[in-house]
Amino acid sequence: MIRRLGILVFVLLILALAACSGSPAPAEFTIEMSEFAFTPNVFEVQVGQEVTIHLKNAGALNHELMIGQNAMMMDGMPSGFEHNLFENSEPMVMGGMSEGDMESDDHGMEEMDHGFMVLMPKGAEDATINFTVTEDMAGTWELGCFTDSGVHYNQGMTGTFIVNP
User: Fold this and answer.
1) Cα separation of 165 and 155, whole Å?
2) How far apart are CA 127 and CA 71, in angstroms?
3) Is the predicted pLDDT of residue 5 greater than 60, yes or no?
4) How confident is the model at residue 96 (pLDDT cuts 50, 70, 90)?
5) pTM above 0.85, yes or no
6) Residue 118: is its pLDDT beyond 90?
7) Which of 18, 132, 143, 147 is spaced 20 to 30 Å from 4 by Cα?
8) Mean pLDDT of 18-38
9) Which of 76, 40, 73, 72 is nearest to 56 (CA)?
């Protein structure tokens, strides 16, 4: 009887350790865009986690999502980020629009000089971004909407994206 109990405890311990050593559970967020906010506006993930972000434009204006560090200025207005969360990886994006002609492209995204962005025109269908968090993404990042030459960003359309190692 004691031997069986010892074996059972050992097996349970092995199973518990195996569960702890695996990849983190996938994370899924929905970001609602409005004038002039991302709701919610703080997100926390960890390296190795699969992330799905759903974007919904609930506002009356066009909006965009960029995730980066160090907002850059152009003609005195914020225009994007110096560092792009997706510099070394490419997320999969469904929906959204490209900035140039407002027509959907193959990826629903655009890689700009100032970083990766997904444009969400008013009335557009929801978009989805899928990616796996890599080690080079560790740190604190900022969400930003730079639409209307940075006016949305200046009005507070920002957020925080934290990647834990």
Assistant:
1) 31
2) 24
3) no
4) confident
5) no
6) yes
7) 18
8) 87
9) 40
Could you tell me if 49 and 29 are in contact, meaning their C-beta atoms sit under 8 angstroms apart? no
Residue 73, SS3 per DSSP: strand
How far, in Å, CA of 116 to CA of 133, rounded? 15
Which of 124, 107, 152, 149 minimizes the C-alpha distance to 55? 124
Q: What is the rounded distance in angstroms from the CA atom of residue 149 to the CA atom of residue 76? A: 10
- Taking the C-alpha atoms of residue 40 and residue 139, their distance in angstroms, rounded to an integer, is 19
Structure tokens belonging to residue 151:
């006016």
- Best CA proximity match to 80, nearest among 30, 143, 34: 143
- Say if CB 114 and CB 89 are below 8 A apart: no
Q: Are 124 and 57 in contact (CB under 8 A)?
A: yes
Q: Please name the residue that has the structure tokens 């405890």.
A: 9
Model confidence at 68: pLDDT above 80: yes
